């Protein structure tokens, strides 16, 4: 286990790197330090040839309560250049997860809000405890969650995304599964066991195949059908 992080635990089980957000007293709210530690840990996992899958989890009662609100309020007073750095860092974290060359599994428990929900659904597979709740409370509370718009619309479509973002109500794990925001809802006591099992099954596969397949999956899925089929043919011919 890596000991130099302040708010992130890093552990390895076989070919799976486990990253555990570790600010349980703050429900693992994302502050600048945790953002940086997560980005660095993801980069290390991506560069490690022995790691084939990443599992993200949260210590304590919640996977991630969202942005650290105290730090968020302070950032409003920062010079424009520093404020821009913070916003870009938040966007970079979601991209780092979704664009990682290895599959990412998220084990989600508790009440997961805003940026925490964004982090969770950026994973390739999401397992939720069946008593977990997920929501985007920003708009009803006078904030505009600009970084949530593109990610959520891509996941669930405009109609459902508008409801989640503008009404701001919490949804349960079963609805998250029905919307495609999560893959499974399991008993809280089985959350880590099931998440580790999924991660281990991915970690047992060939690393080169996983990287190529994940990159192509998202690349082709985002294309119009005919263009995607042409690109798929071209990719097949390169194998």
The total count of helices amounts to 10
Gap between N and C termini: 37 Å
CATH third-level topology of the largest domain? 2-enoyl-CoA Hydratase, Chain A, domain 1
Helix fraction by DSSP (H/I, runs of at least 4): 40-55%
Give a short overview.
The chain has 239 residues and is an alpha/beta fold.
Provide structural commentary.
With 239 residues, the chain is of the alpha/beta class. It folds into two domains: 196 residues, 2-enoyl-CoA Hydratase, Chain A, domain 1 (Alpha-Beta Complex), CATH 3.90.226; 31 residues, no CATH class. The protein contains ten helices and nine strands. The chain has a six-stranded mixed β-sheet with strand order 1-2-3-4-6-9, sandwiched between helices. Helix 1 links the parallel strand 2 and strand 3. The protein starts with 7 loop residues before the first strand and ends with a helix.
Describe the secondary-structure layout:
Elements: E1 8-13, E2 16-21, H1 32-47, E3 53-58, H2 69-75, H3 80-98, E4 104-108, E5 111-113, H4 114-121, E6 125-129, E7 133-135, H5 148-156, H6 158-167, E8 171-172, H7 173-179, E9 184-186, H8 191-203, H9 207-221, H10 225-237
Parallel strand pairs: 2-3, 3-4, 4-6, 5-7, 6-9
Antiparallel strand pairs: 1-2, 7-8
Helix pairs in contact: 1-3, 4-5, 5-6, 9-10
